[in-house]
């Protein structure tokens, strides 16, 4: 009697194929990682990081500016909200060597501190709090320029300049003061709108009927020249007073000058309600992201 051979497949163990290991025949499973929830502290830290970056950009690189008057119509309208570049016209900084800096040029639209408010020597209001006033105008004269106006036309170094592309027609306001159109033939001391400081300083810079812009100073005017309180009334703008240049208009809402002259919580709340109710109808959509030139 012979023994019956047991088939290889029936053995308790099987040999692994050549070149493979025992683990190859098994399916490996990687345990899933448990979901990690963000702690309140981490959420707060994230929000603070975003705020810090945002404040850095707004304070050092750009800022928001609202047009409160019609002195730059129709280039800029009352209610235009602008993003202002604070870097390009700033004094060069060693800690930002890759940034492009340049000096202000004739024709630039710039935001600046009104010269009666000197940096570091801010006047105070009725409550004793320091105050400043930011304005936006077009730079008409750079250091060394000879400027005068005749019949409302600006002459720089003896050459008549074209009227602002989007400005108001100078002949549309025949009743305006002759002082604006014949500057500086009529000296500031004869116009009640000019400051006392400018009435004293202007004659010192008049040569041959032209106003000569001194070193480190600039002469500003609004495109709407008959409705602009500018350098003709308060004088030259020091280089250090220049804040930056507007880049584009990110939002424009129909407003009037009187609105920006009102103060108080009740007026603020009332204006916010007005904006909420008329946001879609009174927003000037065609001016959204409009470049300032």
Task: Describe the 3D structure.
With 293 residues, the protein is of the alpha+beta class. The protein has a single domain, classed as Umud Fragment, subunit A. The protein is 20% helix and 20% strand. The protein is built from 6 helices and 13 strands. The protein has helices spanning 40-61, 178-181, 196-201, 231-234, 257-261, 265-282; strands spanning 62-66, 80-85, 109-113, 134-141, 146-150, 153-156, 159-160, 206-207, 210-212, 217-221, 237-238, 242-252, 290-291. Strands 1, 2, 3, 4, 10, 11, 12 and 13 form an 8-stranded antiparallel sheet that branches. The radius of gyration is 34 Å and the shape is globular. The termini are far apart.
Key descriptive features of the protein:
alpha+beta, 13 strands, eight-stranded antiparallel β-sheet, single chain, Umud Fragment, subunit A, 6 helices, 293 residues, five-stranded antiparallel β-sheet
Concise synopsis of the structure shown:
With 293 residues, the protein is of the alpha+beta class. The chain has helices at residues 40-61, 178-181, 196-201, 231-234, 257-261, 265-282, and strands at 62-66, 80-85, 109-113, 134-141, 146-150, 153-156, 159-160, 206-207, 210-212, 217-221, 237-238, 242-252, 290-291.
């Amino acid at each position: 009697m012979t023994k019956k051979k047991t088939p290889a497949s029936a053995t308790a163990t099987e040999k692994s194929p050549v070149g493979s290991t025992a683990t190859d025949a098994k399916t490996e499973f990687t345990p899933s990682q448990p979901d990690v929830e963000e702690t309140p502290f981490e959420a707060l830290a994230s929000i603070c990081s975003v705020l810090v970056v945002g404040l850095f950009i707004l304070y050092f690189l750009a800022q928001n500016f609202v047009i409160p008057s019609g002195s730059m119509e129709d280039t800029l309208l009352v209610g235009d909200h602008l993003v202002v570049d604070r870097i390009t016209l700033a004094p060069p900084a060693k800690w930002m060597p890759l940034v492009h800096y340049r000096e202000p040029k004739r024709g630039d639209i710039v935001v600046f501190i009104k010269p009666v408010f000197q940096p570091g020597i801010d006047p105070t209001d009725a409550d004793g709090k320091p105050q400043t006033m930011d304005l936006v105008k077009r730079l008409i004269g750079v250091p060394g320029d000879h400027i005068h106006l005749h019949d409302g036309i600006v002459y720089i170094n003896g050459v008549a300049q074209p009227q602002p592309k989007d400005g108001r027609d100078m002949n549309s306001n025949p009743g305006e003061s002759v002082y604006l159109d014949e500057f500086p033939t009529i000296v500031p001391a004869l116009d009640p709108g000019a400051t006392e400081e400018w009435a004293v300083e202007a004659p010192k810079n008049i040569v041959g009927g032209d106003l000569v812009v001194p070193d480190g100073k600039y002469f500003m005017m609004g495109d709407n020249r008959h409705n602009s309180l500018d350098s003709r009334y308060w004088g030259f703008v020091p280089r250090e007073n220049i804040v930056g240049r507007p880049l584009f208009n990110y939002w424009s809402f129909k407003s009037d000058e009187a609105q920006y002259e009102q103060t108080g919580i009740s007026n603020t709340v009332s204006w916010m309600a007005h904006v909420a109710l008329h946001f879609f109808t009174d927003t000037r959509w065609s001016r959204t992201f409009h470049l300032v030139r």
